[in-house]
Amino acid sequence: MSEKGFTLVELAIVLVIIGVLIGGVIRGQGMIEDARGKKVVTDATVLVNAQYRYYERMGRYAGDSDNNGIINFGTLNSAAPNDANVTDNTDVDFAFNELKTVGIFPASSTNALLATTQRGGFMYFAGGTITDTAGNSLPVNMVVLRNVECVAAFALELNVDSDAPDSATGASTGKIRRLSGNAFAGDSWTATDGDCVSGGRVIGTNTTNVAYIFSGL
Asked: Nearest Cα to 184, choosing from 197, 194, 198, 196?
């Protein structure tokens, strides 16, 4: 019995099938990343809408107990809310507690659960100031998102600011801004130190830190 190898046509068909399968895997991975990014947009929007509802009822934002227009907690590189020892309005958990007190969030929910987002990231409320192009100091309130995937930061940028993530100033203008330590970053999403690129290629699964400014701009 003689052995017979593949013909060129058969090899071509096999290569086409392999290419289709690889393409499907890549597209599937991209869809998964997109879904994770959209989930973070939804999570952040829930917190922002909760603050708007609180403002309608109370005439101030949750966490702004002295009613000066700025949420009292102002650390942009804080640890996650965790319900422990909420002693005053400078605690990262304080705004969550006020939202639960008026029933906007369920009293049975833990602050840690309300703050959690995908892949170990978390969110909380903070207040602060930014300097506009004219040199004026503007009070702002924001949702801080820590350790979120770059794909989620890009989804927020596109959804809220309608700005391409590769814009030269996209990460330092508008309502969605990249954070560097305890301050707003002054660069683009794809800056070398921006965590979202490597060797000139965007890495959507890398993580970064973001502020979603919902009042003051």
From this structure: 194
The answer for residues whose C-beta is within 8 angstroms of residue 176's C-beta and 6 or more apart is 153, 156, 157, 160, 161, 163, 210, 211, 212, 213
- HEC profile of the chain: CCCCCCCHHHHHHHHHHHHHHHHHHHHHHHHHHHHHHHHHHHHHHHHHHHHHHHHHHHCCCCCCCCCCCCCCCCCCCCCCCCCCCCCCCCCCCHHHHHHHHCCCCCCCCCHHHHHECHHHCEEEEEEEEEECCCCCEEEEEEEEEEEEEHHHHHHHHHHHHCCCCCCCCCCCCCCEEEEECCEECCCCCCCCCCCCEECCEECCCCEEEEEEEEECC
Cα–Cα dist 121/74, whole Å: 19
Q: What is the pLDDT of residue 152?
A: 87
- Supply the pTM of this predicted model: 0.80
Phi, psi of 180 (to 5 degrees): -130, 110
CATH level 3 topology of 8-215: TcpA-like pilin (3.30.1690)
Mean pLDDT (10-residue bins), the chain, 217 residues: 59 67 50 63 93 96 93 94 82 94 93 86 94 84 93 86 66 88 82 64 78 91
